[in-house]
Amino acid sequence: MVRALALNCTLKPAPAPSSTQKLLSEVLAALGDAGVETDLVRVVDYDVRPGVEKDMGEGDQWPMLREKVLAADILVLGTPTWMGHHSSIAARVLERLDAELSETDEAGRPILFGKVAVVAVVGNEDGAHKITADLFQALNDVGYTIPAQGVTYWNGEAMGSTDYRELDATPESTAGTTATVAANAAHLATLLAGANYPA
C-alpha cells in the first residue's frame, strides 16, 4: 500500500479555517481514489524547533513528525502565499528535512531516495510559481523525486480578499490539476517502490 503524508504549513492553528487545508484535503481525496493511504498534519500545531538536526532536544516535536515523513511514500507539502513567498512554517519544514542529507538506507542511498514529493499552494496574490520552484528545488535536494506536473495551486484576484476556502465550488482548472498531481504521484511512487534508484 502506497502511503501519503500531507504537511499543512498554514500559519493558523487548528481549528481555524485554512484554505491550505481545503486544497490539501482535495489532493488527499484524489490520492485516496488512486488507492493511496493518506494522513494530514497541520505543522503549526506542533512545537517544531528551529534547526537542521533530526532532534533539536527537549520539547522538540519534529521527531514524531519525522517518523510520519519517513513512513510515507509521498509527501504533499502545502503552503499559503505570504508576500509572494511560502510560509515560515514551510521554511521550517525544509530546514528540518536538511538533516536527512546525511542519512542513508541499508544500501547506502540517501534515505529519501525512492520517495515522491508534490506541492500545493494557495493565496490571493501572485507567487505560486516562485514558491513551487523554491520548494521543488529544496525537496529534490534532500532526495525526493518530483513527478510530472507535480503542483496544484489556486491564486485569487490580485489584492483581493477572497480565500480559497470561501469559494462556492472548486474551480475546474484547479480540480483537474489536483487530479493530475495525485495520479502522477501515485504512479511514480508505485514505480519507485518496486525499483528504487541504484545504490
UniProtKB/TrEMBL annotation:
An example of a GO molecular function for this protein is: oxidoreductase activity
Q: Could you tell me which InterPro entries the record lists for this protein?
A: Flavoprotein-like_sf, FMN_Rdtase-like_dom
Classification via Gene3D superfamilies = 3.40.50.360
Domain NADPH-dependent FMN reductase-like positions: 3-148
What SUPFAM superfamilies does the record tag this protein with? Flavoproteins (SSF52218)
Q: What is this protein called?
A: Flavodoxin family protein
Say which species the protein is native to. Answer: Microbacterium lushaniae
